[in-house]
Structure formats: structure tokens, C-alpha cells
Amino acid sequence: MDRHSKIQRSNNMRAIRSKNTRIEMMLRKELWRRGLRYRVNCKSVYGKPDILFVRAKIAIFCDGDFWHGKDYNENTFARSDNSEFWNKKIIRNMERDRNVNETLTTQGYIVLRFWESDIVKDIDLCCRIIEKVICNFSKTNKIM
Predict the structure, then answer these.
(1) How far apart are CA 135 and CA 120, in angstroms?
(2) How far is CA 141 from CA 34, 37, 58, 60, 129, in A?
(3) pLDDT along the chain (144 residues), means of 10
(4) Using alpha carbons only, what angle is made at residue 93 by residues 88 and 94, rounded to the nearest 5 degrees?
(5) Mind spelling out the 3-state secondary structure of 17-30?
(6) Residues 6+ positions from 61 with CB-CB distance below 8 Å
(7) Where exactly are the structural domains of the chain?
(8) Residue 16: its pLDDT value, please?
(9) Domain spanning 19-141, CATH class
(10) What pLDDT is attached to residue 139?
């Protein structure tokens, strides 16, 4: 049984952001500090990447651990009254992520996905990975 009233639960769920989340802002600020310039939530690219390097065709997604199914297994919501709903929702999100990855890859994009916990734990490593991919693009395309 839910501890919150329907109104309170609705307000809680409405407050969950889909863009400009804390982890996105952390990663974007660090990339900007390092001199990297990018686009944000570009609607013209399939899946609306959180961060997009247009010329290098690098699409970056910052995935929340819960919403995108990190360490997910079917029993995650076994004790929940709404377990069927949550299992379907998380599975659908994971399927959508795979579809976005495949579509962007066939369109020539390099897709990078970072878990929320990885960004929080080691943002420097995430940025170094991004810088390395950009550097590899620059070397192969002789752009600096």
C-alpha cells in the first residue's frame, strides 16, 4: 500500500525531471569547464540525447539508475503493490534505450551512456572517456 495520498504521489511524480537533471548538470558543467562545447537535448536527433557533439556525432545519455534499470531483475518490485506496473515500465525504458542506441549507431553516431551513480562517483573518468572519443574523432578527421 502506498504511504502517500494520490495527490501527494502525483505531486512527487510530477517533480521528477526528464531533462536538466542533477547528473546532467554535473556532467555538462564539468565538460564546459574543460572547454568542450555541445548541444543539449537536441530534438532533431533521434532519442533527444542529453548532450550532443554535432560535428563528432557523439550522443551522450545520463541514465538514472532506477529509471533505466541498473542492476534490474524481475524481482525488484516483488513486494510492491504496483509491481506489475513498475516491472513493465523499467523493462520498456530499457528496451527504448536499446532501440535508441541501435538507431543512432546505424545513423553514424557514437552513443555513450553513463549511469547516474558512475557520474556521481567519478565524474572525471566519465569526462576522460568523452574526451578520448572526441580526440579519436579529431585524429581520424584531422580536425583540431
Answers:
(1) 24
(2) 21, 18, 14, 20, 18
(3) 67 64 96 97 95 97 91 70 83 96 98 97 98 90 58
(4) 100
(5) CCCCCHHHHHHHHH
(6) 47, 49, 50, 97, 100, 111, 112, 113, 114
(7) 19-141
(8) 62
(9) alpha beta
(10) 81
- Which amino acid is present at 121? K
Which residues make Cβ contacts (< 8 Å) with residue 76, sequence separation at least 6?
86, 87, 90
**Strand blocks (E) in 56-144:** 58-63, 110-115
pTM of the model: 0.83
Which residue type does 56 have? A
The C-alpha cell at 2 is 502506498
Query: Is the distance from CB of 28 to CB of 40 less than 8 angstroms?
Result: yes
Q: What is the dihedral of CA 16, 131, 29, 71, to 10 degrees?
A: 30
